[in-house]
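Can't paste images in this forum, so I'm doing it all in text. The chain is below; anyone willing to post the predicted structure tokens underneath?
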Amino acid sequence: MRTAYDAVPYPGNPFFQTHPDRLATIGTLFGMTPAPVDRCRVLELACGDGGNLIPMAFSLPGSQFVGIDLAGSAIDKGQTLIDTLGLTNIALKRMDIMDVAREMGEFDYIIAHGLYSWVPGEVRGKILAICKSNLTAQGIAFVSYNTYPGGHLRDPLREMMRFHVRNTSEAEEQIKQAKELLEFLIDGHPADDAYGISLRAEIKSFLERKPQHLYHDELAEHNARLYFYDFVESVKRCGLQCLGESRLASMQGGVYPKPVAERLSRFTGDDFLLREQYLDFVKLRKFRQTLLCHENVALDRTPTPDRVMSFSAATQVRPSSREPDIRSSAPEKFEFSDGGDMTTNHPLGKAALMHLGRVWPDSVPISALIQVARADSGRDTSAEAAALEDDSRWMYNLAWKLYAAGLLELYTHPPKLKRTVSQRPVASSLARAQARQGHSVTNLRHGKIDLEDQTTRRLLILLDGTRDQNQLLAQLRETAGGTQISIDELETNLRHCAELALLTA
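Text version of the structure:
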């Protein structure tokens, strides 16, 4: 059976938020004992061409991965990459979700990303049923879906587009006509009208989407948006419970002015689920990425120092000043790659952030980070146990606050990568294979990297460990079409590959 995804392919991408390590981190923080990421079983529903699942199997050879999808062309494409990489710990199957049975076995992590809202009601029920019947006792499932109240802003546009394309069934023509309508609407609504301003913002976001995303996300027959409390009720009926969101920062209410935060607490009390619904009201949330577990799992959503200190930490951060004073109590501002920043006058905090910035994209066990920060900040190495305990507690608070704000990554099983350039650099074989196919690759941190620079793409393909820098330079010059590449440019590109977490040696 040919599907819409066979007619209009939906290229797969890695989604960091779905990685088993991200799920295990949230589960551990909230009192669960998830399966070790390097020895687990993972199931992805609607896996497409394996763009999300194959990189996981590549980086976690001791774990087992199964992906199912109805689109045969996508499964075939993924299988080609699997064969190229020689992976034996992953299976992609052309299969209907409704045919998944308990006999498929249990999985420690189940992923359903970009699926729940785009299928009929009975299939949505089946997705949750699979999460119940095929999830291990301490297993965690990831389910993403469109939500209200933010979704109310998009419903009219979807209805208008589907009406406009009602007389054509050809995919490319539907996409063309939908964009024509959106351009007509954006010109037709005055910018000074409150409704028009909101509508124009949504139209602009639709027009910026790739054609296949617009086709499958908004022009599809099914696109269910629901309130969080409705989703929670469906989850409860299946014998599951909501663990939290994949991105902890989305669960925080402390970013609002004090009167708003106080009223939020008054409305919701200690009811975690009610608080999440009211946060949706405040944020006009349009999309959720919710983690589920079995209803009988005891959860404790108040992180403890021992849980936080068990992780490794990573962040791309740099000081604002050229020569930060680490050892004094002078305040120093630090800037994070995503645009966030923080200022601290604590020597331990300044030293820790400086070290994390130096070793990026690598990670550091938080227990080791304390020792480095104490040494770099000039703390007394012969300090009494009480002083050491105070420093550990301070570091725990810093790590937790940065992670909750989305400025720090925590890992149960850090990725293995090389942050320096060796004599004969080696890029991951996954990235090299993907670079031969196109301009997007997956790095060792399960992130998508767009190779817009042709030199970087050609260089990446050559990084198999058989060439030193002189040989790399000579070969790049041969394929550069007459463009001269200097040794400095080569070294810059190699360092860039290391910073992008693409190098293994």
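Residues 385-404 form the longest helix (20 residues). The CA atoms of residues 327 and 377 lie 5 Å apart.
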